Amino acid sequence: MNLKELSALLNLSQTTVSRALNGYPEVSEATRDRVGKAAREHNYIPNTRARGLATGRTHAVGHVIPLSTKHEVVNPVFTDFIAGASEIYARENYDMHLSVVPDTNEESAYRKIASKGSVDGVIVHGPVENDPRIQLLQSIGMPFVVHGRSNAEVDQDYAWVDMNNKRAFERATKCLIDLGHKRIGLLNGLESMDFAIRRRAGYQSALDAAGINSDATLCRSEEMTEDYGYESTMTFCARDVPPTAILASSIIVGIGVRRACSELGLTLGKDLSLIIHDDDLSYFRNGAAASQYTATRSSVRQAGLTCAELLMEQIASPDVPKRHVLMEAELIIGNTTGPAPRS
Amino acid sequence: MNLKELSALLNLSQTTVSRALNGYPEVSEATRDRVGKAAREHNYIPNTRARGLATGRTHAVGHVIPLSTKHEVVNPVFTDFIAGASEIYARENYDMHLSVVPDTNEESAYRKIASKGSVDGVIVHGPVENDPRIQLLQSIGMPFVVHGRSNAEVDQDYAWVDMNNKRAFERATKCLIDLGHKRIGLLNGLESMDFAIRRRAGYQSALDAAGINSDATLCRSEEMTEDYGYESTMTFCARDVPPTAILASSIIVGIGVRRACSELGLTLGKDLSLIIHDDDLSYFRNGAAASQYTATRSSVRQAGLTCAELLMEQIASPDVPKRHVLMEAELIIGNTTGPAPRS
DNA sequence: ACAAGCATTCAAAGCGCTTTGGTGGAGCAA
DNA sequence: TTGCTCCACCAAAGCGCTTTGAATGCTTGT
After folding, report:
1. Of A227, A255, A283, the CB nearest to B287
2. In what side-by-side order are the strands of the sheet with A330-332?
3. What is the DSSP string of A63-126?
4. In chain B, which segments carry CATH 1.10.260.40?
5. Which residue among A314, B145, B184, B209 has its CA within the 20 to 30 Å range from the CA of B96?
6. Residues of chain B with CATH 3.40.50.2300
7. pTM over 0.85
8. Across-strand partners of A153?
9. What is the mean pLDDT of residues A79-106?
10. Distance (Å, rounded) from C-alpha A259 to C-alpha A265?
11. Cβ of residue A196 near strand D, that is under 7 Å?
12. Bridge-partner residues for B327, per DSSP?
């Protein structure tokens, strides 16, 4: 069923039917009702492409999610992020386009998306330091919101939604220091990523404040897999002087740490303390009842939702000043932390 | 840059330019080169919507991913599935549209997608028993491929890509039985899902073959979260006569089992045996070096890739008979299984 | 009674592309 | 020369919608 057929059926012009359905005032209430009813009956839904062509707006947004070519890994937080964003898209009747793009040619992917004209705006995932995509999108004039931030020139004004990574890791580190820990391992994400850089800075700053010399061999930076947590812990614990605490950049890494501990017969929270960052993933709820992990928690799903909201705003009124949302992570005390063992 | 501008620039008609770019024969090689070069230079990319309108083909496919309303959970295997499918889409220059839809109104979501005419085909995720979406899509005449299967009427012919769930769980169960286990817990996925029904059947069939009476209180069916694995194991082990082995429907559930064991001081593979189903998720590679879990393994990423291929095929030639791909899971012997403790 | 004003409705253009159905001219045979 | 076939190109229609600009029929005010 298309407009033409529907209007023929109703003995009305396409104009009137279109206006009736789109809520224009110059249509009598009587006809509007009649049209609405007929549309529902024959479940008429306007063809997106045609509408897009006519209006110049697509009612769609794009997400480009990077595929780490090194390990062929897709960050699992995307599911939850997207679930959050989708709530907004559903409400606003927007479609979501997804491309999974090897992180080597993300830039060209954005260029392509822009010139194909298939979306009204995009969400930028996984910003790196001085991310070129920001300038690119600005120069193209495509609305966008960054999930995270990028240390680009100060005067670049763009919308972002970020977690306060520095503060979170600063607090976590301080928390461990307060418990008496001095050798604290950091299992960071890839430090080409902005978020990881900030986390590192937070960690460092807490150590500095406490006058603890940081030990470079205790800091690692990798793709956040389970195996990374496991391997690192095994390596750490094989040292003459192993760390007494570990800070892990994701629950998945934390799971690896736990496996290693279990294998080594170490009890988390006693022999080794662990704080993770918890994105509050739906499949890994760090339960309220017995919080498995001491964690800095910030819901990535909420971040997705907020990103989508900002993007909708920006598409609706491009000239409004760009908004920034900085979410603070909660510090959840679970049972993987305890006083440093004296040795 | 659009067709009109480009053709004006070249002093050619839109027709010729369009044909040159789309590889039609009635264009001289000289002009084709000239056009191609100019297109690249001004990086002209045809507007997707306009092309779609004109051809009736969208060069896009849809994925509707269900959001379990009960727990607000999005299955994490989607990231990997989609990464696989995207390889094909990228190659074929297809776009991917995603909707996350509460599992309560999936059907209407499909209906909407179809009448909006924004995709050439869809992938159906998470089929349940006698899934109504299959009939729906057939009646609409929209090409689709099901990831999984549905026990619908025999004569329904549709394309699917599935793992041999029954066989996998039959083998896993038999493997445990061969090790002397008689009380085997099953932590299944939601048994409204087709895959879970088949897994249950496999489990049952192996027990039957060995003449073991199944114990309904050892079989659970839930959303496959970490916590589910943990809670179930804790409950199981609090029984007077706990099971000696557990079959878990996903690595995430297995992680919960491991956590419970570690807490209870049980050693996996000695005090309790565990076999998981492993979707070979990129973040949870069940490492080759020291395989953490004994598992039935089947790559969900590969499944995504295959689904996408079948869908492309079907879109290209709708009348070709529907194909079915049944993937066999590998049985990986890791170190979470061992002989049943005598007691 | 007539112009003005308003409430409704409509025909047609246009969004950027593909595709149908040509046209003009080169090349060749008779 | 005529008549024919090819080749290379083009003008215009059409995909399904929105939107501009105009038309229609009714009330009003005077």
Report:
1. A227
2. A219-221, A184-188, A245-248, A273-278, A294-297, A330-332
3. EEEEEBTTTTB--THHHHHHHHHHHHHHHHT-EEEEEEEETTSHHHHHHHHHHHT--SEEEE-S
4. 3-55
5. A314
6. 60-162+300-327, 165-298
7. yes
8. none
9. 91
10. 10
11. no
12. B163
Residue % of chain B over a pLDDT of 70: 97
Alpha helices (runs of H) in chain B, residue ranges in sequence order = 3-10, 14-21, 29-41, 48-55, 77-92, 106-116, 132-140, 165-178, 194-209, 226-237, 251-264, 300-316
Given the structure tokens 């049943």, which residue do they identify?
A: B340
Minimal CA–CA distance to B338: which of B272, B248, B289? Answer: B272
Is the domain defined by A3-55 classed in CATH 1.10.260.40? yes
CB spacing of B117 vs A58 below 8 angstroms: no
Q: pLDDT digits over A19-51, tens only?
A: 999 999 989 999 999 999 999 999 999 999 999
Q: Which residues of A173-200 are buried (b: 16+ CB within 10 A; e: fewer)?
A: bbbbbeeebebbbbbbbbbebbbbbbbb
What distance in Å separates the CA atoms of residue B285 and residue B269, rounded to the nearest whole number? 19
B261, B281 contact by CB (below 8 A): no
Q: Furthest-apart CA pair in chain B: how many Å? A: 89
Q: Mention the CATH class of domain B60-162+300-327.
A: alpha beta
Residues of A in contact with B274 (CB under 8 A): none
Q: Chain A within 8 Å of B190 (Cβ-Cβ)?
A: no
In the predicted model, what is the mean pLDDT of residues B130-147?
91
Residue B40: how many other CB atoms lie within 10 Å: 9
Q: CB of B229 within 8 A of CB of B257?
A: yes
Contact residues for A138 (Cβ-Cβ < 8 A; gap 6+): A156, A158
pLDDT given at position B285: 80
Inter-chain contact A287–B227, Cβ cutoff 8 Å?
A: yes
Q: Is the CB of B53 under 7 A from strand D?
A: yes
The per-residue pLDDT for range B32-77, each reduced to its tens digit, is 999 999 999 999 999 999 999 999 999 999 999 888 887 778 888 9
pLDDT (tens digit, 9 = 90+) per residue, A192-212? 999 999 999 999 999 999 999
Chain D positions within 7 A of any protein Cβ atom are 7-21
Q: Which of B6, B47, B79, B125 to mutate to test the interface with A (most CBs of A within 10 A)?
A: B79
> Which H/E stretch holds residue B184?
strand B184-188
- CB contact, 8 Å: B117 with chain A? yes
- The torsion defined by the Cα of B252, B253, B254 and B256, in degrees rounded to 10, comes to 100
Report residue B246 as tokens: 């557990």
Pure H helices in chain A? 3-10, 14-21, 29-41, 48-55, 77-92, 106-116, 132-140, 165-178, 194-209, 226-237, 251-264, 300-316
Tell me whether A78 touches chain B (CB under 8 Å): yes
Strands A324-327 and A245-248, sheet pairing: unpaired
In 3-state terms, what secondary structure has residue A131? Answer: coil
Nearest nucleotide to the CA of B17, by C1', is D9
- Name the nearest CA neighbour of A170 among A142, A147, A143, A201: A201
Q: What is the pLDDT of residue B72?
A: 78
Query: How many other CB atoms are found less than 10 A from the CB of residue B37?
Result: 11
Burial (CB count within 10 angstroms: exposed 0-12, middle 13-18, buried 19+), residue B264: middle
**Tens of pLDDT, residues B168-187:** 999 999 999 999 999 999 99
User: Which CATH architecture group holds A165-298?
Assistant: 3-Layer(aba) Sandwich (3.40)
The pLDDT value recorded for residue A290 is 59
Q: How far is CA B26 from the centre of its chain?
A: 43
User: Residue A112: which of B96, B35, B44 has the closest Cα?
Assistant: B44
Two structure tokens written together for A265 = 């017969």
- Which residue ranges have CB below 7 A from strand C? A 11-16, 19, 26-28, 30-31, 50, 53-54, 56; B 2-4, 14-15, 18-19, 21-22, 44, 46-47, 50-51, 53-55
